[in-house]
Specification:
By secondary structure, the chain is α+β, with helices and mostly antiparallel strands. The protein is built from one helix and five strands. The chain has two domains: about 35 residues; about 70 residues. Strands 3-2-1-4-5 form a five-stranded antiparallel sheet, with no helix packed on it. The protein starts with a helix and ends in an 18-residue tail after the last strand. Keywords: Membrane, Transmembrane, Transmembrane helix.
């Protein structure tokens, strides 16, 4: 009996280690992938802060919306990313990888838009306007 219980403990221990290794690998792939994705060629558009919310396990977030092509997108960013809290309706540049056609947009909190921009290209700018 003790041999069987020792074998079961060993099998369970191996399963636990494999599970933990899998979780660590997923975290590394997500973290590295998230950093590398914004090294791809980017397009830029304009996004607007539309609301705030407080997730249960992290700090306050600003929700922003932007459009590329005929598709509307939404994203969020931590309010701690801003030098000063944005007002609802404030606009900022949003960067997104060209190959994703608008998905995975990242609001650039240091690039608030103060001037009126007359038109935005439907697929965004190839570089951030000056």
């Amino acid at each position: 009996m003790t041999t069987n219980s020792a074998l079961n403990n060993l099998k369970e221990n191996k399963k636990g280690k494999r599970f933990l290794l899998g979780v660590i690998c997923l975290f590394v792939v997500f973290y590295v992938g998230n950093k590398l994705i914004y090294r791809l060629p980017l397009n830029y558009t304009i996004g607007w802060v539309t609301e705030y919310y407080k997730p249960s396990r992290s700090g306050r977030q600003a929700i922003f919306e932007y459009s590329v092509g005929n598709t509307d997108f939404q994203g969020s960013i931590s309010l701690s990313s801003f030098k000063e809290k944005p007002e609802l309706g404030d606009s900022f540049y949003v960067a997104f990888p060209k190959i994703f056609k608008g998905r995975l947009g990242k609001l650039l909190p240091d690039h608030r838009i103060l001037d009126n921009i007359n038109s935005i290209p439907i697929n965004g700018w190839n570089e951030m306007p000056k």
